[in-house]
Structure formats: structure tokens, C-alpha cells
């Protein structure tokens, strides 16, 4: 299971700030040309609204969002934080400069070269997104999860039209992981999340969690062993529509508070109850945390792409409900992103505190 905040909650979070003028957007209500880009949270704007998470199908035109940085084979490690931009608001789309952006929350340098993502009662959790997209490929994260009821560690892929593939770890279960996937924001009818386990303690031990996402088969693996396989044909309906994740996706890493009062009861139960902020671990460290040692990416298209490939761009639907995706040499860098941010819409995000932003971020986890 993966959980989304309700739209009413999102609206109430926004409404609690004055001078909110951002227009909402979705696939049937596109953004105006004055604020052409539909952000990952469904609001129109310019500048960083046009970067990671910008939904082409809800933006003013199919080309309003910046092209998405193309996949590149890599083994991303965290011996220092120089490849991580600590505040995604300042990202300009240059994926050569940074491997990751921090969308919300806080990271700290650990002593042994891991990425530490932290959750406090105030920060609402931490989420990072890769700057590059994967359009099919094998992604492995070597990580240690949290071990506290209500605290969820996640490693997922997420496309700009909300195709999503998950590994999630509710903190009260440290011998298992959960696999799940979504197609354009919905759970395809025949599928549900699954639990895979009997692992040595996932808090104390690193395990390799793999999402092997190919055109026709999606495989989840733990420590190199297949634990679940889904075929595209398993989720192709009688109507011929393939409800299989098929659009370029960012890799996202997070620790988030599912066990809080504003979550639905189902979410709280799934996550292992309300978070105990008096937990001795929390008292001792001042935060909850999850650790990531490396994320390796093997792109399915790296050999077939032209040598000057820079980006993915959405086109008209190739078949019903399946946007065409083209590899291009168009730049992904949004020149002057910072200066445009002052326009209507962008204000909303600078006005909202980090914890509200993370709560909104939970939409995507
Ligand atoms: C799309 O957005 C419009 C305007 O905000 C809203 O009226 C409509 O209900 C939304 N549609 C969906 C499917 O969310
Ligand atoms: C990635 O790098 C780490 C650290 O050097 C190494 O332990 C790991 O095996 C590498 N992963 C892959 C898939 O090569
Ligand atoms: C983490 O380490 C990097 C260099 O490895 C340094 O530039 C950065 O300031 C450190 N961050 C913190 C929060 O200590
Ligand atoms: C992107 O960043 C790299 C590395 O910092 C730099 O060499 C390059 O000029 C930048 N590209 C653009 C278009 O700004
Ligand atoms: C879990 O692993 C242990 C040790 O390998 C094994 O003895 C046990 O039968 C396994 N349990 C399940 C439910 O697979
Ligand atoms: C959360 O809900 C519990 C149980 O209803 C209540 O005791 C607690 O005061 C609530 N906390 C907050 C911050 O609202
Ligand atoms: C194209 O695909 C998108 C995404 O599934 C969908 O919202 C839209 O209705 C489709 N348009 C047509 C003409 O099929
Ligand atoms: C992209 O490719 C086209 C055709 O090959 C070429 O004319 C154009 O200059 C290239 N643009 C960039 C930004 O490299
Ligand atoms: C990122 O920068 C914006 C603009 O300065 C600021 O409002 C926001 O709080 C920052 N976010 C984080 C997580 O520090």
C-alpha cells in the first residue's frame, strides 16, 4: 500500500496561508499560458514548477514543462554531499551538476559515507529525488530502514504523470519490505501491494532492494533474489489499455511520518500506529532516520539512445492513455529559473513551511 493525502487536506494546508493565488491543474483543467507549468502538487506556475515533477498532460501545452534529464548509468554513492542540492527550489535542471535534490526535510552527513535522511516532529520527514529520469532500467538501493511504528522508509520511482513503482518499509516490521505500483496515479484493478520478507533486521543490516523495470516485465528483488514479477500483459485490460508504468521516472528516497493524526486511520494502521515521539532512539538522537549507502542505475535505453541524447519529452498519445515519449537533444536547463520564481504561484511554495511541504510530499510517497 502507498498512501496519498486527500485533496481536501491539501487544500486546507494551502488555505491556511494568505495570498494564495495559485491555480490548480489536472489533465482536464490545464494551466494558463501566464503560469504554464503544472507542478507535481497540481498547481500552475513558472520556474521550478516546470522542472522535476511538472506534469506535461496538465500543463499549458505538451512542451511547457522542461525536458526531463535522460537516464545515465551510474552507481550513486554518498561519501560526501556535493552531488546533492539541499533545496530543490534552487535547482535549474542541470543534472550534470547534481545527482539528487532534497524536496523537503533534512539530510545529515554520516560518519561512514551513507546518506542519512531524518524525520523530526517538526520537519515532517525528508524526501530526495534524482535529477535524472529512468525510462526503463534496473535500479538498486542499498539501504537500512527505520524501526519505529508509524515511520515509513521508501525507495520508489515516480513519473511526472504518476506512474509509480514502490519499495516501502513500515517501521514496525523490520524483517520485510512491501512492493507496489501505480499507473497514472491509480492502482490497476487486479493488483495490490505485496509483502516480502524473512530478512535479517532491515534496520541493522543493509539489503539491496531492486526495481527491475523493463518494457514488458517488472521485477522486484531483494539481495538479488526475485520476490515478485509482474508482466505488462497482466495489467492490460479488455479495452486494450496497458495499465503498466511506462513513463520516465525519477528515483525518490524518503522517510515520512505516516503515523500522525492527520493521516487516515488505514494509513496509521498500515504504518504501525501513531509515532511515539518519546521513543528512546528519538530522545537520544533528536531524530528518526534511514540510511542509504548507494543507488545504482542501469538504464535500459543507454545503448539505443543517440550519443547526444539529453532528455525525454512527452508527445501526443501513442495509443489510448499512453503518451508517446521521445528522446531528444534538447537542454533540460531552465535558464533564469530563480528569477522567474517570484511570479504568482511560486509564492505559494516559499510561503509554506517545510513540514507542510513534506505533508504535501506524502502525496507522492
Ligand atoms: C480538475 O481541476 C478542476 C479545476 O480545479 C476541478 O474542478 C476538477 O474537479 C478537477 N478534476 C479532477 C478529475 O480532479
Ligand atoms: C555501488 O558502489 C558501492 C560502494 O562502492 C558498492 O558497494 C556496490 O556494490 C556498488 N553497486 C553496484 C550495483 O555496483
Ligand atoms: C557534509 O560534508 C560535505 C563535504 O563532504 C560538506 O561540504 C558539508 O558542509 C557537510 N554538511 C554538513 C551538514 O555537515
Ligand atoms: C551544467 O553543469 C555543468 C557542471 O557544473 C557545467 O559544466 C555546465 O556548463 C552546465 N550546463 C549548463 C547548460 O548550464
Ligand atoms: C526464514 O528464514 C529462516 C532462516 O533461513 C528459516 O529457518 C525459516 O524457515 C524462514 N521462514 C519463512 C517463513 O520463510
Ligand atoms: C492525536 O490523537 C491522539 C488520539 O486521539 C490525541 O491524544 C493527541 O492529542 C493528538 N495529537 C495531536 C497533536 O493532535
Ligand atoms: C491521452 O493519455 C492521457 C493519459 O492517460 C489521458 O489523460 C488522455 O485522456 C488521453 N487522450 C486521448 C485522446 O486518448
Ligand atoms: C539537436 O540535433 C539537431 C539535429 O541533429 C541539431 O540540428 C541541433 O543543433 C541539435 N541541438 C542541440 C542543442 O544539440
Ligand atoms: C528552500 O528554499 C525556499 C526559498 O528560499 C525556502 O522557503 C524553503 O523553506 C527551503 N526549504 C527547505 C527544506 O529548507
From TrEMBL:
One of its GO terms (cellular component) is fungal-type cell wall. One of its GO terms (molecular function) is chitin binding. Residues 61-279 form the GH16 domain. Residues 1-22 form the signal peptide. Gene3D superfamilies: 2.60.120.200. Keywords: Glycosidase, Hydrolase, Signal. One of its GO terms (biological process) is fungal-type cell wall organization. It comes from the Eukaryota. This is GH16 domain-containing protein. It comes from Lentinus tigrinus ALCF2SS1-6.
